[in-house]
TrEMBL record:
<dbReference type="Pfam" id="PF07690">
    <property type="entry name" value="MFS_1"/>
</dbReference>
<feature type="transmembrane region" description="Helical">
    <location>
        <begin position="106"/>
        <end position="128"/>
    </location>
</feature>
<keyword id="KW-0472">Membrane</keyword>
<feature type="transmembrane region" description="Helical">
    <location>
        <begin position="50"/>
        <end position="70"/>
    </location>
</feature>
<feature type="transmembrane region" description="Helical">
    <location>
        <begin position="82"/>
        <end position="100"/>
    </location>
</feature>
<dbReference type="InterPro" id="IPR011701">
    <property type="entry name" value="MFS"/>
</dbReference>
<feature type="transmembrane region" description="Helical">
    <location>
        <begin position="296"/>
        <end position="316"/>
    </location>
</feature>
<feature type="transmembrane region" description="Helical">
    <location>
        <begin position="233"/>
        <end position="256"/>
    </location>
</feature>
<keyword id="KW-1003">Cell membrane</keyword>
<dbReference type="InterPro" id="IPR036259">
    <property type="entry name" value="MFS_trans_sf"/>
</dbReference>
<keyword id="KW-1133">Transmembrane helix</keyword>
<feature type="transmembrane region" description="Helical">
    <location>
        <begin position="140"/>
        <end position="161"/>
    </location>
</feature>
<feature type="transmembrane region" description="Helical">
    <location>
        <begin position="395"/>
        <end position="414"/>
    </location>
</feature>
<feature type="transmembrane region" description="Helical">
    <location>
        <begin position="322"/>
        <end position="343"/>
    </location>
</feature>
<dbReference type="InterPro" id="IPR050189">
    <property type="entry name" value="MFS_Efflux_Transporters"/>
</dbReference>
<keyword id="KW-0812">Transmembrane</keyword>
<feature type="transmembrane region" description="Helical">
    <location>
        <begin position="268"/>
        <end position="284"/>
    </location>
</feature>
Amino acid sequence: MDNVTPCSTNKLGYQQWFCFLIYFLVALDSLVVVPFSASMALDTVGSSAYAGYLVSAYAVSAAVVCLFVRGTQHHINEQRKINIALTGITLMTLITAHISDFYLLLIVRVITGGFGGILAVRVLNYVLLISSDEQKKRNLALLFSSFPLALALGVPCLIFLSSTVNWQQGFSVLGAVLIGVALLAIFVVFNTRNGQPAFTSKPTLELSNNAKPHRQLWRLGIRNNSQVNNRKIVFSALILVAAVLSTFTVSTQFPVLLITNLHIKSELLSSCYTVSGVGAFVLMQAYARKPFHQKAVMALVWFCSLLMVTTLVMGFEFENLHLAAFAFCLFVVVSSARTLVVSTELITGLNEVERPIFISLQNALQHISIAIGGAVGSVFVMVEIHSQQLDFSMLVYVASALILLVPVLWVRFINYGD
């Protein structure tokens, strides 16, 4: 096992920032298909009704792969695997831009999702590996905030460069950026021929020299109950599922309300996404830079949850376009911040053996919960017979219960930890 000195500076090293860039591009690759999916389906199969399959193909594939990928405590192994997965997702993204058959496109998106799932686990584990104990929470917060930033800046930029009709150009631009990042990773940042990276944290586990590190870690994580609290991991997973599920049950239906019932203009809706994404990123950075004690985190989770319920009622119960648009922006900001805070606190609260297990679960459960959340939201939306408008009354009650379940579980989790 390599023994290297952890980074002592308070500033983020270039490797953390590079990991943030990779995470940002992986998030962008998964998100950009949403505005492009209708045109992609029309061009390849002749009907936009198949658009949803393109979106779900990536998410399901990434979720399944995450369950079978587990980080190790060897930084050089992680670098090599990140380079391989980054090369794979780059090739698949470039190939996507040149496919004219829908079913072949679906297969490519499944493979792309697999590489995206690998990167989600490996990059997250690597950031924890090269971060000191004092930096872990801040670096995780930065990494997780790449998702709302990709939604706020990355997606609108690709749409602006290509429009939603010329989706091939959008994937070509993204693929070109990924080529540059992959070359930097292989030959500069994660060049394993140079031996040691710029810095990394000392491992806390003593692995035998004869055993392969990932297999040894697997044995420690599954068989050694003294180092793994299975109940704690399950409880953490339950909180994460509740947080993501309650968020996407609402966030997938907010645009439906704005478009179908309130007839929002596309420019205003696009502005809502940008404002909410930037707001979530800024709020997450404020959380990352300020230390929070256990009681402060609990209060923050309660405050965000109550504000989510308030914006939910404000948006769906009042027939006012601008009020609903404001509620949508605020809901996305607060719900994103709550999910990121919960994820960061859960991961940093685990020990070195439990953490890789939960990271694999976390990425898989997030993708699955997103898919289920969208379906749950649709189930509780009714159509009014006379006006033919959508009735979201039942959704408000169900979503409110799911939202408030998170702080209740969090209180139980803290008390259990004590």
